[in-house]
Design a protein that fits this description.
alpha/beta; 5 helices; single chain; 20 strands; 4-stranded mixed sheet
Length: 387
């Protein structure tokens, strides 16, 4: 694609925008989900689709005019602030989503982009800012058996990893009671070990034991990642090419009173820019919006600082809202339910009594701004893997 995949940095800060990838001390997407009752967004618009327009919510290609603007010195300083790294950081380095954006100015076209989002229907799910609690993050150890899988039609050569992965007994896929993908949703399988994160889209382990899977993205949690992450133009188990689990918020974080990272969010295809992404994203789809002000994958939205938090129904909602003010939320995939949290199945705390699916429903599109997002990349369909 004519773009370098990047090199390893002890600390990567792209001058084009929120390109901070890491400064560790030892830094060596199917059809629209239609759930409206809070628990589950059973399918995304796009998954990590890599080879053209998905079957629904399609539109003609839009203007690919770059959206980048000049940074002030204060904004550059804000990008290099790594003093507030999450104590629960998944990686050995500070990642872009762990960098606060409350000190950044809105993008020059923020108002136009927010207006376009509102005109196209706002959030999915009838413009309701809702939370999906269905993604399960499983834990594995050295004794967890490794399983091989047969790639299915949602596995993309070059972008995805064909390696065995640990499958803990008694676990479950996103939106399922077990490992069988019976609801035809995204069926993400997410497993973490001490040093590796495995994330698979469209996993399915039948009662017979047969295991087929879509795109598997393997994340080495100890390596130093370049700003292009797994590779320029490369997808992951999410359409934007990002890891999923580190951008989920958990019941334990909310109970503790702080979410120290940006949050994964999703939009319907018609609100997403056609074949465009910005950092920290590395991938886009032919989703998408013909409007020049469509939201590119990787874009970060920030809740306005003066939002009346006291009006929210409980402290759990206020904890999430404060994170949206400080770290924002990053567009990672297509679908109907805006925010994604981790299931509490492996947490100490429980969502019941802590936070409900509609406790942030008062947050309107107009309450957010697009933070300065740097260079806009046009996705060509090619993946240049970072090995």
């Amino acid at each position: 694609m004519g773009r370098a995949t990047g090199v390893m940095y002890a600390c990567v800060l792209a001058a084009s925008g929120l390109g901070l990838v890491g400064c560790g001390a030892d830094a060596t997407g199917g059809a629209d989900g239609l759930s409206v009752d809070g628990a589950t967004d059973t399918a995304s618009d796009t998954g990590p689709e890599v080879d053209g327009n998905p079957p629904a919510d399609t539109a003609t290609a839009g203007d690919t005019t770059a959206l980048d603007g000049a940074d002030s010195t204060a904004e550059a300083d804000a990008r290099s602030d790594t003093s507030t790294t999450s104590s629960g950081s998944w990686f050995a380095q500070t990642m872009a989503w762990e960098v606060p954006v409350d000190g950044l100015s809105p993008h020059a076209r923020s108002a136009a982009m927010i207006g376009a989002l509102a005109d196209r229907g706002g959030w999915g799910n009838n413009d309701t800012f809702q939370i999906d609690f269905s993604l399960t993050v499983l834990e594995a150890d050295a004794g967890t058996p490794l399983r091989t899988f047969t790639p299915n039609d949602d596995f993309y050569e070059g972008d995805c990893d064909a390696v065995p992965l640990p499958v803990p007994p008694g676990g479950a896929l996103e939106g399922e009671e077990g490992y069988a993908c019976e609801g035809d949703g995204d069926c993400h399988l997410i497993v973490r070990t001490d040093d590796t994160l495995y994330e698979m889209w469209r996993a399915n382990i039948a009662a017979s034991g047969a295991f087929d899977g879509g795109c598997l993205a393997v994340w080495d949690l100890a390596r130093t990642w370049p700003e292009t992450l797994r590779g320029e133009g490369c997808t992951s188990a999410d359409a934007a090419g990002l890891p999923i689990a580190p951008l989920l918020f958990t019941a334990d974080e909310v109970q503790a009173g702080e979410i120290a990272h940006a949050i994964r969010f999703i939009l319907p295809n018609t609100r997403i820019a056609h074949r465009q992404y910005v950092r920290p994203g590395t991938h886009a789809t032919g989703a998408a919006s013909a409007d020049v002000d469509g939201m590119p994958y990787g874009v970060r939205l920030r809740l306005r600082a003066d939002y009346p938090l006291a009006a929210l129904p409980n402290e759990g909602a206020r904890v999430v809202a404060r994170a949206l003010q400080k770290y924002g939320m990053i567009l990672a995939d297509g679908g109907q339910i805006a925010l994604t949290a981790a299931s509490d199945s492996t947490a100490a705390a429980r969502w019941d009594g802590l936070l409900g699916p509609r406790d942030l429903a008062a947050l309107d599109v107009s309450d957010f701004a697009v933070v300065d997002m740097g260079e806009v990349f046009d996705w060509s369909g090619d993946c240049e893997r970072t090995r």
